[in-house]
């Protein structure tokens, strides 16, 4: 049973890792569908806090028991095979995607844009009831994101390491929000292609900086984001929805080398079909997630009724 469980979790990790490489497809959504979302988020949070407390325990002995407690709460038997599966899938998917993006930039942006457009339904639906406040927050966030993505693009051939670390810190926040893609954050900032190249080239300095930034983000920003979701749920998700919508500017298929938007050229129909294919792919995933969640809720309700009897 243990070997079978490891195999299942390896496959789950591979699925999550594969979609995390694709801008617009949320690893959090796949984690929800495969039933390991809560385990990953909780265990990752405990792992980071445990490591940080252990480091602090070098100076303060009173922190060591707290560090051991957090590390004890990590579901190692689930987290390790999922992590191995994710890592293997990321390496393989990066090797396939990097040359495709370089050779077909218009086509890949069209697919990615379709993926993002369909993903918007997830945070928008999680808002619940949209009132005037939520609409205004989403509009302001969308305008801000549109303007920011219109700024001159960074030189993404060789991004500075501080930018890599900061980008990773923000991208890891997407783990908390099903429907939000961490890779899309990298696209918007302008370091998506260099990150794929770093994985393919085994650039340990770049990758180490990225991992360090992700750990810092997981320790700092994710906890803050979880607090915002708990105390200002609708407002936070409305802002997220607006940011995603406004950032779609970065995925307009026809762009100059500097990132300026251009009018459609050439044969437009295949580009539209690729966009629609992206929409269809994520829509199918969202529908699957909805059906699975409803089934689990119905089963939980049935269990409660049975327990009361």
Automatic annotation (TrEMBL):
UniProt entry keywords in alphabetical sequence: Membrane, Transmembrane, Transmembrane helix
The protein's name: DUF368 domain-containing protein
Organism: Agromyces rhizosphaerae
InterPro entries to which the protein is assigned, alphabetical: VCA0040-like
Transmembrane residue ranges: 12-34, 40-61, 73-98, 110-128, 135-154, 160-192, 204-229, 268-288
């Amino acid at each position: 049973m243990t070997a079978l469980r490891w195999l299942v979790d390896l496959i789950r990790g591979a699925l999550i890792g594969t979609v995390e490489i694709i801008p617009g497809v949320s690893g959090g959504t796949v984690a929800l569908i495969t039933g390991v979302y809560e385990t990953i988020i909780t265990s990752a949070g405990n792992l980071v806090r445990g490591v940080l407390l252990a480091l602090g325990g070098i100076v303060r002995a009173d922190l060591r028991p707290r560090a051991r407690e957090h590390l004890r709460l990590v579901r190692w038997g689930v987290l390790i095979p999922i992590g191995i599966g994710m890592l293997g899938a990321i390496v393989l998917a990066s090797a396939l995607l990097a040359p495709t993006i370089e050779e077909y930039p218009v086509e890949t942006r069209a697919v990615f844009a379709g993926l993002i457009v369909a993903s918007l339904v997830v945070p928008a639906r999680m808002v619940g009831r949209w009132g005037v406040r939520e609409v205004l927050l989403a509009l302001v966030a969308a305008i801000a994101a549109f303007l920011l993505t219109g700024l001159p693009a960074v030189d993404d051939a060789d991004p500075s390491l501080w930018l890599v670390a900061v980008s990773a810190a923000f991208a890891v926040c997407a783990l908390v929000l099903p429907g939000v893609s961490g890779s899309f954050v990298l696209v918007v900032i302008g370091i998506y292609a260099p990150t794929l190249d770093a994985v393919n080239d085994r650039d340990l300095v770049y990758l180490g900086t990225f991992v360090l930034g992700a750990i810092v983000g997981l320790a700092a920003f994710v906890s803050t984001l979880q607090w915002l979701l708990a105390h200002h749920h609708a407002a936070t998700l409305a802002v997220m929805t607006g940011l995603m919508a406004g950032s779609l500017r970065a995925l307009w298929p026809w762009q100059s080398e500097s990132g300026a938007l251009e009018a459609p050229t050439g044969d437009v129909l295949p580009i539209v079909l690729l966009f629609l294919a992206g929409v269809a792919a994520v829509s199918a995933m969202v529908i699957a997630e909805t059906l699975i969640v409803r089934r689990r809720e119905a089963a939980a309700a049935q269990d409660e009724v049975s327990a009361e009897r």
